[in-house]
Amino acid sequence: MTLIDDEIEEVSRLCQNVISNSKLITCQNTLVRVDVEQSRIRRLTICIRFPDNYPKNKLLLEFKSKTLSSAFLDKFNNLCDTMLNDAEGKPQIMWVLKFISEYLSANPLCIVLDEVQQIKQLLSNFGHLRVKQRSCTIDLIIRAEEYFYQAKFKVPKDYPIERVVWNDCECNLPQALVLFINGQAQEIARRCVEPPLAGVNTNLYFKPKRSLYRCLAFVITTVRNILQEKCPVCGQRCLPDNPSDNITRDTDDLFLIRMFCGHIYHQSCLKRFMSEPPFPIGGKTCPALTNHRNDDLTITDDEISLPKRSPSNPPLSLAAVCGQKVSHDKWGLNNVKSAETKWAHRQAKIRELEEVKDFLQ
Q1: What sign has the CA pseudo-torsion 117, 118, 123, 127?
Q2: How far apart are CA 166 and CA 162, in angstroms?
Q3: How many CB atoms lie under 10 A from the CB of residue 224?
Q4: What is the mean predicted confidence (pLDDT) over 54-60?
Q5: Average pLDDT of span 251-277
């Protein structure tokens, strides 16, 4: 028997007993094929061929997977090929199978390698990621000017069937904005794994989507956009340069109010805007000039993009007006007659005071 015959016999005898969660599919002199399934997404098919002049030359490896990204498979193939340099001249199949199995077990976040790379590109100079394989967590740290956002995102074992989760964050943005960012990101994550409520047969066609990139991309983009947000009424930047100057009293004129359309107003500016004419039928609409709102993002597998527009819904321009109805739990002034009446009463009082002043003079 040749060395290859001996090794084939050893693999057929030991593979499934030694390599956990493995299944030997083919074991011949021309091809050895092994399936490794450590979780629903960490599933890998390993195809091994013997080169000429084996074992002086390294095994030829090919990885296939319907769940792991091609970016990871390429990098992992190169890593295994490099590691095989240490095994030249020796039996290599069981050695490389053990290495592959141990690597997948020790690096469970290999399933999100492509998403992590995309997030790093999106972060650019605004922060960084810390990937922790042992705890299956990813620390996101965003720094823009004097503001920061930091949270620990947990990638569950059954990802992407289960969504990415995070319980808390550290951030020096106003609390109302932090609640909006986390709440909207949580909703994005939920929609990735839960079918829409509408529709009888929705569950039959729904497939869970990856939620890590979608959530973190929304958080990163929103934090950056909020820093540049200007009050639509006075045109001044909403957030102060120094986070310690943020207004926390909800009675203060400069207290920030975030409307349902996503734009932010100074409280006094919103009061003035809502209480002065004109009072259009159907209520006032947001006058903000913007490319898009923070929550008007379409997040796909590969990118964040502006919403798709049809001929009846033309593209937004640099000077586009938001145009959504101005509404908020705290501001119920959308009734035209009520708003006009209140404004008329205020004007009447002003005229009465002026008449009194004129009389006294």
Answers
A1: negative
A2: 13
A3: 19
A4: 91
A5: 85
Dihedrals phi, psi of 159, to nearest 5 degrees: -60, 140
CA distance 177 to 257: 9
DSSP 315: P
User: What average pLDDT does the segment 275-296 reach?
Assistant: 68
pLDDT value at residue 326: 79
d(CA 127, CA 138): 13
For residue 223, give both structure tokens. Answer: 């934090």
Instruction: Give 27's Cβ-side CA count (13 Å radius).
Output: 19
Let me know how long the chain is. Answer: 361
Provide DSSP, 222-263. Answer: HHHHHHT-B-TTT--BSS-SSGGG----TTSTT-EEE-TTS-
- Residue 295 tokens read as 């929550």
Dihedral angle at the C-alpha atoms of 265, 269, 270, 275, nearest 10 degrees? Answer: -170
> Which ranges in 241-304 belong to alpha helices (H)?
267-275
Give the residue among 132, 172, 124, 175 at the shortest CA–CA distance from 155: 132
Between CA 339 and CA 232 the distance in angstroms is 20
pLDDT of residue 314: 43
Environment class of residue 153 by beta-carbon count within 10 Å: exposed (0-12), middle (13-18) or buried (19+)?
A: buried
Instruction: Classify 105 as helix, strand or coil.
Output: helix
Average pLDDT over residues 29-45: 93
Cα separation, 358 vs 361, whole angstroms: 5
Each residue of 179-237: pLDDT tens digit? 989 999 999 999 999 888 765 565 677 888 999 999 999 999 999 888 888 999 999 99
Torsion of CA 196, 198, 203, 207, to 10 degrees: -30
